[in-house]
Task: inverse folding
């Protein structure tokens, strides 16, 4: 008898399910298990021991009573909220600008905003190191304009808003291009006849944006918002460079994701059990915020709106 074959949809889904299982579910299960053990200094033998919720009790105790860890929580909230706003609204504005200007100029404009995303993390970090350094570009410009009388260490001395502004600015430049390309593609996908009909009826640019472009790209807005939210919760590469090189004060430049990394791999702590508990908590918070964002943005309502015959 011929061996039964999976239909193409099931075949594609099985491959995706396998990748999710291997690269997401298995690491998550291992992280959860490690959070229930006393493993430190990469002593794998300690993974056989079970301490229950002890690491979670330690973690919440640090959040409540350790000012550095509580600062990490505040930094994470400010960083995610601020950068998410920049990425979504900035992406919308850049996409609108790219859509309005002439096509050839639009291509150069979009490529220019992709440079931060294409630049290696170390190179991009070095650029902003020299920009925000006390003897760097920013202070030189402000001194030349007589806006300050002496160099200011913005990321170390102007707490907390100095380092918070720097990490939002730097990561916003990286992330804003993602929203721009998604929204620009969505604007271009709207049939041109809709724009022509609106212009014939006397619509202005404001009417095109708020009555046509944004309502017809609401799916893209939901996707970019949720994607960027979950991405920012786990972002730490650029932050690591800024903190490691002293551009920003350590605890005001460290988000929860970077705290997990430093706790697991930092030579001063090297506590994989505590880091695993912190990572598990981050996953739970990410799932909760993702579902809450979908609900607030009316994801279920949009699904229910698809009715009628095609």
Result:
């Amino acid at each position: 008898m011929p061996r039964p074959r999976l239909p193409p949809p099931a075949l594609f889904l099985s491959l995706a399910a396998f990748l999710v299982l291997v690269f997401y579910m298995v690491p998550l299960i291992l992280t959860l298990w490690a959070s229930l053990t006393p493993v430190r200094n990469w002593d794998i033998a300690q993974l056989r021991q079970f301490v229950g919720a002890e690491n979670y009790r330690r973690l919440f105790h640090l959040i409540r009573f350790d000012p550095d860890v509580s600062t990490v929580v505040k930094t994470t909230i400010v960083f995610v909220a601020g950068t998410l706003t920049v990425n979504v609204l900035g992406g919308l504005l850049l996409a609108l600008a790219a859509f309005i200007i002439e096509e050839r100029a639009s291509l150069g404009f979009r490529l220019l905003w992709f440079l931060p995303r294409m630049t290696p993390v170390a190179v991009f970090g070095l650029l902003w190191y020299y920009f925000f350094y006390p003897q760097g570009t920013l202070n030189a410009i402000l001194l030349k304009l007589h806006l300050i009388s002496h160099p200011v260490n913005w990321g170390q001395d102007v707490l907390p808003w100095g380092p918070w502004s720097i990490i939002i600015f730097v990561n916003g430049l990286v992330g804003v291009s993602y929203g721009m390309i998604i929204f620009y593609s969505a604007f271009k996908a709207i049939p041109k006849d809709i724009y022509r009909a609106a212009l014939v009826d006397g619509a202005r640019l404001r009417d095109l944006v708020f009555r046509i472009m944004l309502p017809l790209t609401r799916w893209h807005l939901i996707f970019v918002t949720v994607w960027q939210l979950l991405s920012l919760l786990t972002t730490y590469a650029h932050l690591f460079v800024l903190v490691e090189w002293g551009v920003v004060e350590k605890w005001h430049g460290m988000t929860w994701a970077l705290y997990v990394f430093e706790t697991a791999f930092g030579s001063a702590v090297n506590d994989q059990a505590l880091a695993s508990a912190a990572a598990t908590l981050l996953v739970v918070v990410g799932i909760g915020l993702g579902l809450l964002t979908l609900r607030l943005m009316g994801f279920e309502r949009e699904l229910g709106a698809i009715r009628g015959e095609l």
